[in-house]
Request: fold
Amino acid sequence: MKKLLFLALVALTTFNLTAQETHFGAKLTGSFTSFKASGNFASTWNDNSKGKINLEIGLVGEFMLSDQFALATELNYAGEGDVFETSGLKTTIFTSYVQVPVMAKYYVNDNISLNFGPQIGFLMSADSESELTLNGNTSTDSEDIKDQFNSTEFGLNVGAGYKFDNGLFLDLRYTAGLSKLLKDDSTGNLKSSGIKFGIGYFFK
Reply:
């Protein structure tokens, strides 16, 4: 991870030197994520997945390569996960990642952009909380499940943005997970997906 962050800093410096204009800012994002299951438990999980609302915060850098094209990169701390409910059982999975998206941006005009690009996420935590209700009685249980998850996750983003003249910007994107979340896929696995809406501000 340290090597990747070092390479990211080198890339940022290079883009900053070659870009026509640069913008740096911060962003707060709300997301709705869920897991798509495959394998033996696919139908049970997918039929009872409810999705989960999360928050993420991050820093943004945008490098204008021309009047219409830009390259943007972010460093985000993102919560993700899913909620599974069936037959009196409710299980919530909480995961958190440090994510580094790299987005190619095409500006339709001075304000509206179309955005596309990959991201890598580094797992920070993974926990589950379960509530089981039987005969009117509810029992709860929580567990640290980080050791069951892969340490990195790869995804692909597609979306659009709107940049106001005063530095405020809005961002809407869909993120599709490309890599499996669980280390052991002998009985099945999970991939994540999410819809994200962010609001941020460019300081420069």
